Amino acid sequence: MRQPPSQALPVSSGLGLDSSAVRARMVGKLAEQGVQDAWVLQAMGRVERHRFVETALAGQAYEDTSLPIGLGQTISKPNVVARMIELLRQDAPGKLGRVLEIGTGCGYQAAVLSHVATEVYSIERLRGLHEKAKKNLLPFRLPNVHLILGDGMLGFPKGAPYAGIISAAGGEDVPVAWLDQLAVGGRLVAPTVTASGQQALVVIHKTATGFDRQVLEAVHFVPLKSGVA
Ligand code: SAH
After folding, report:
1. Which of 100, 104, 199, when mutated, tests ligand 1's pocket best, judged by the most ligand atoms within 8 Å of its CB?
2. CA within 20 to 30 Å of 89's CA: 21, 35, 165, 187, which one?
3. pTM, 2 dp
């Protein structure tokens, strides 16, 4: 696999001068936990997660824990973010092409994705979080991240076809619109309720002849809901 261009870690603010050291430790743990994709590890090392949570929670930003982001929603654990993006990028020789993220939330995962994909379309159904993500992402100046307020269950046809679709919210099944908007060769990674009634990570690979579906480990994501609120 081609290595990502090496870039200096950004100097931080908010957590003191050593936030890049704290992040480097988090990246070390992710590697120990089995994350291997150098692009993913580097992106996780670059994005300052503490800037996406309330000040009172900033001290926990680099622990492997999910954190509240308001309106009853949560930012996923770093390990889950890294794992899902690694699955999304499976077999990609370099940067992924266009990616669709369902559930922008606070914008953290969109920022990570911006370093491993050429374009990121991220859709959120809650206006309050869409606005929060816009504010959070502004200082990062990521011109390849496009935030959309809308119902992600319909996908976002304007950016299709996507090399990858990643959902941060779990439904009963994967909406047909996502399968339609996936490019041939592309992958979809989403928490989905499986036959056992529990939520698991599902990876769908679109091939020239159909879809390969893999059901992986159990996960706990917020529910996928329809409509804008
Ligand atoms: N990736 C986010 C995680 C947010 S939690 C981050 O890094 O912070 C999942 C998000 O999915 C919530 O904000 C929730 O409002 C949103 N969501 C649920 N159903 C949705 C839908 N149909 N369309 C768009 N967003 C949805």
Report:
1. 104
2. 21
3. 0.94
